[in-house]
Amino acid sequence: MNFINDKFLKNKTINKKEAQTFFNIYQQLGLAWEFLGLQCKHWDNYKKIKNKKETCKICGKVKGNENFYILLPKTGPKKMGAILSPNSKKTFKNKKEAQILNDTIDFYGAILNVDVFNSYKSNLFGNKHEINIAEDRIVKLKERGIECSLDKHLIHIKFDKIKIKPGEKYSGFPWEIKKKDLKKFPVIFDFDKNNNFLGLTILR
Ligand SMILES: [Zn+2]
Which of 71, 99, 122 is the last residue of a domain? Predict the structure, then answer.
């Protein structure tokens, strides 16, 4: 990077088009250096630079700055980030201030989103009635037209293949639904000999 900078970018005799090419090379090298820096454990300590900042003696990363990229191993299980949960008793002004994490990964076509936030104030249906949204950690997985969402109180599965108008969705416990209607629902309940609920299976 220094070589490109000293020899070409600082060279005033070079024409605009050529300078752009070397600028692009410089950018690519910078990106490569950033990936290399991700492997650095900064074990040679930091040196002081201006503005009270410190940089790693090996890779030059500024101490306290977040990495822009994440390195993951190609084989074996991948781990990204530690588990995060709501961390304050306070009710924040809006979701933005209450947000701890909202991140999404497209993993070989399966979309996974983790949304973690503290309690915040919101308006119901856009009117003036202010309500408090409770803190939560919501995990959503979308795969082939099905969305599975897990939060503190509910596990919800949604099929997006049937489009319905607002207000046309009904819900009920199995004992509230007529047996002949219930027979159309491809759901199998799992339970033990003491009738403890163990899970359920939905046939597609
Ligand atoms: Zn380093």
Answer: 71
How many helices, marked H, and strands, marked E, lie in the chain? 4, 11
- What's the gap in Å between 38 CA and the centre of ligand 1? 8
pLDDT per residue of the chain (204 residues) written in tens, 0 to 9: 888 888 878 877 888 888 888 899 999 999 999 888 898 989 998 999 888 899 999 988 888 888 888 889 999 999 999 999 999 999 999 999 999 999 999 999 999 999 999 999 988 766 678 889 999 999 999 999 999 999 999 999 998 877 888 888 899 999 999 999 999 999 999 999 999 999 999 998
Cα–ligand 1 centroid distance for 60 (angstroms) = 6
Q: Are residues 89 and 158 in the same domain?
A: yes
- Range(s) of the domain holding residue 56: 1-71
Q: How much distance in Å is there from the Cα of 101 to the middle of ligand 1?
A: 26
Class of residue 63 by CB neighbours under 10 A (exposed 0-12, middle 13-18, buried 19+): middle
Alpha carbon of 65 to ligand 1 centroid (Å): 12
Cα 100 to averaged position of ligand 1 atoms, centre (Å): 27
Distance CA 26, CA 128 (A): 54
Residue 98: how many CA atoms within 13 Å on its side-chain side? 22
